Amino acid sequence: TNGYGYLLNSIIFRINDSGVLVLQCSKGADNSEIITDAAVVATGKWYHVAATISSQGEANIYIDGKSVKSGGVYIPVNDYRKNNWLGKSTWSSDKYFSGAMDEVSFWSKALTPSEIVNAKAKGFAGWEPNLIAYYTFDQGVVGGVNSSITSLTNKTTNVFNGTLTNFALSGNSSNWIKGVDVEHKLLMSESTLSYGCLANESKRIKIASNIEWVLSGTAEWLGISQNSGSGDATLILTALQANNASTERTVTLTLKGKDDSMTTTLTVSQSGVTPTLVIKEEGDFVFEKVSNNA
Fold first, then answer.
1. Local structure of residue 157 (DSSP, 8 states)
2. Mean pLDDT lowest for which of 18-32, 89-103, 181-195, 270-284?
3. Residue 188 near residue 206 (C-beta atoms within 8 A)
4. Confidence of residue 95 (pLDDT cuts 50, 70, 90)
5. In the chain, what percentage of residues exceed pLDDT 90?
6. pLDDT digit string, tens, across residues 47-64
7. Starting at the edge strand that comes first in sequence, how are the strands of the sheet with 212-216 ordered?
8. Structure-model confidence comparison of residues 243 and 77, the more confident one
9. 2: which DSSP letter?
10. Which residues contact 166 (CB under 8 A, 6 or more apart)?
11. Which of 54, 219, 274, 278: disulfide with 251, CB 3.0–4.6 Å?
């Protein structure tokens, strides 16, 4: 990717012929980079590869969740980078990438080591904060005739679809192929939900999954549109009853894979009413009462 003007403010993550990875960040036309000390990838095998640059210029290269090189580079310039490529360098003399890609994502923050490990195991849903683009490459027929599919879909709500250029889109190469499968994905769009004290308020959560799942731990005051499923789903959670008590009530829901491989939780709360004192005068009398201001 590069910013305004050819070769300016570029961020490049590339591989050379010997399997060495290079992360470059330029400031104007001045380049900075970190380079792995030796070859870290080989042909004929899938790798999970990640590169990060923090807001302080701290750079890291990860292979299969482990940092293989770190160092300092220029802090990325806050620029509109109108030229962005996968498999192509900023420099026209560089070779095109010779290999396969799957599960590619771009972020507006530097992921932490634990987030990178989770990404390798689970992938993403597409709604995560700071996720700019997420390409799963789950399009077309593997090895088939895909001449009509010439764009790469971004799974986020941002409009950053890719355009395929100079692909044959037929046969077992230069085409949509079988990628690497995320082992188990079970993600929930929210970790907490809060309701007011009144009844019949509804909220939605999304589940992204590639396994069978069960949602348990509900309460009588909370209705859930779906308690189990397989794959992605959108659930509606409704506060069925008003909370007439003065204290908040909560329930913790547990989303679990049916094979017990993954578990995540959602805490749902409903606020209580706030007692208020109402004083009413009629003639020579004063009436006092306490009411719940719902």
1. S
2. 270-284
3. yes
4. confident
5. 63
6. 999 999 999 999 999 999
7. 192-195, 263-270, 249-257, 212-216, 228-230
8. 243
9. B
10. none
11. 219
Model pTM? 0.76
Structure tokens that stand for 257 in this block: 């894979």
Structure tokens at 233: 């789903």
CA distances from residue 25 to 22, 65, 92 in whole angstroms, order as listed: 10, 22, 18
Q: What is the DSSP string of 31-97?
A: EEEEE-SS----TTS---EEEEE-TT-EEEEEETTEEEEEEE-PPPP-----B--SS--SSTTSPPP
Pairwise CA distance, residues 74 & 189, whole Å:
34
Q: Could you tell me which of 147, 155, 167 has the C-alpha nearest to residue 103?
A: 155
**The pLDDT of residue 123 is above 70:** yes
Residue 228: other Cβ atoms inside 10 A: 11
- Supply 169's token pair: 């889109």
DSSP 106: E
Rounded average pLDDT over 69-76: 94
**190-208 pLDDT per residue, tens:** 999 999 999 999 999 999 8
What is the layout of strands, in order, in the sheet containing 58-63? 49-53, 58-63, 66-72
CA distance 280 to 282: 7
Measured CA to CA, the distance from residue 11 to residue 141 in angstroms comes to 32
Tell me the C-alpha distance between 293 and 291, whole Å.
Answer: 6
Distance between CA atoms of 153 and 74, rounded to whole angstroms? 31
> How would you label 245-263 residue by residue, b for 16+ Cβ within 10 Å and e otherwise?
eeeebebebebbbeeeebe
CA nearest neighbour of 195 among 244, 249, 246, 245: 249
**Helices vs strands, H then E, count in the chain:** 1, 21
Q: What count of other Cβ atoms lies within 10 Å of the Cβ of residue 274?
A: 10
Name the helix (H) or strand (E) containing 258: none
